[in-house]
Amino acid sequence: VQLVVESGGGLVQPGGSLRLSCAASGSIFSIYDMAWFRQAPGKQRELVAAITSGRSTAYVDSVKGRFSISRDNAKNTVYLQMNTLKPEDTAVYYCNTPGSQWPWGQGTQVTVSS
To answer: Is 7 helix (H, G, I), strand (E, B) or coil?
Structure first.
């Protein structure tokens, strides 16, 4: 079973930036497509960015041009660089495979507020 630990969240002003990290256990991380999800209060969890094992990327329209997903297979880690943050980006952010194959981690809280 692959386990993940998300980190890097915090409180940031609108227009600011954060870089989230997701460290995964296991020795075969590199073969998995990975994704970042977020869940805002009272809303369903949504996939916001994905990266394939071949490093192709995809984004939900609301974050295109502002967020960038990347991975370091040597470190079993996937990143989410978030720029030009908006209050509507406030949520708990999680990583998993795009099909949510793994147990969910605890997530990392991102709060965008002045």
So the answer is: strand
pLDDT computed for residue 2 by the predictor: 82
Residue 26 CA, distance from chain mean position: 19
**Whole-number Cα distances in Å, 17 to 24, 72, 108:** 23, 20, 15
Q: In the predicted model, is pLDDT for residue 27 greater than 80?
A: no
**How close are the terminal C-alpha atoms of the chain, in Å?**
40
Q: Are strands 91-96 and 4-7 parallel, antiparallel or unpaired?
A: unpaired
Angstrom distance (rounded) from CA 75 to CA 77? 5
Greatest CA separation found in the chain?
A: 41
**CA–CA dist 13, 87 (Å, integer):** 8
CA 36 to chain centre: 3
Centre a 10 Å sphere on the Cβ of residue 113 and count the other Cβ atoms it contains: 10
Residue owning tokens 């094992």: 53
Query: Dihedral sign, CA of 84, 86, 99, 105?
Result: positive
